[in-house]
Amino acid sequence: MFESIRKTHSKRRQFSTTESGINNLLQWLTLNDIVGLDF
């Protein structure tokens, strides 16, 4: 019981970490595009 809850929690945390990493990457690419267009 607790083992499955712990696995689900770690999976969810890993996914959210990946999701925020993708968001950071998109923001970085967007900033680079804006800078590239400006200069």
Which keywords apply here?
39 residues, mainly alpha, 1 helix, 0% strand, rod-shaped
Q: Count the strands?
A: 0
* Spatial extent as radius of gyration: 17 Å
The helix count comes to 1
How helical, in percent, are the residues?
over 70%
Major sheet size, sense and barrel closure = none
Q: Which structural category do the helix and sheet elements fall into?
A: mainly alpha
Global outline:
rod-shaped
The run of helices and strands is H
Low-pLDDT ranges: none
Mean pLDDT: 79
Beta fraction: under 5%
Distance between the termini: 57 Å
Organism: Leptospira interrogans str. 2002000626
Protein name: Transposase
Strand and helix map with partners:
Blueprint: H1 2-38
Protein name: Transposase
Organism: Leptospira interrogans str. 2002000626
Describe this entry's structure for a reader.
The chain has 39 residues and is mainly alpha-helical. It has a domain at 14-38. Helix content is 95%, strand content 0%. It is rod-shaped, with a radius of gyration of 17 Å. The mean pLDDT is 79.
